[in-house]
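I have been asked to look over a protein record a colleague put together. Alongside the sequence sits a line of tokens, each denoting a local backbone shape. Please read both lines and tell me whether the tokens look consistent with the sequence. Take the sequence as given and treat only the tokens as open to question. I have pasted the whole thing underneath without changing anything:
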Amino acid sequence: MQLAQLNIAKARFPLDAPEIKDFVDNLDKVNAIAESSDGFVWRLKDEAGNATNIKVFDDPDLLVNMSVWTSPQALKDFMFKTQHRDFMRRKNEWFYPPQNNTYVLWWVDNGHIPTADEAIERLTLLREKGESPEAFSFKSNFPAPC
């Protein structure tokens, strides 16, 4: 089994605004770090190589990040032990504070590439029912099913 993750964030500014320029200018760099990280399997991207034009929840200001990893630790290592950490620390400059869960984790079969619709279903499940083996956060970190 592999770990899928979806993370959404509502941008405070249009992507061409100077206030969010540092974020936009470093997307390719941070995505390259993810792709070269141990345990990385796949990430959602469009023809341009990023996901900023992929819209979810019918909200044009929501940015989406979705990826698959070999384990929760591999994802955590990327998030907290690479330059990605520096951008996470600045998220309040660029994104509105969350009103509810903005990320979800779930297990997928090896080789399965989740769809955006599948990911939204998992996030909705987490928001409506709370932590479960089907939709969870790092707080619960349910083990992979046997």
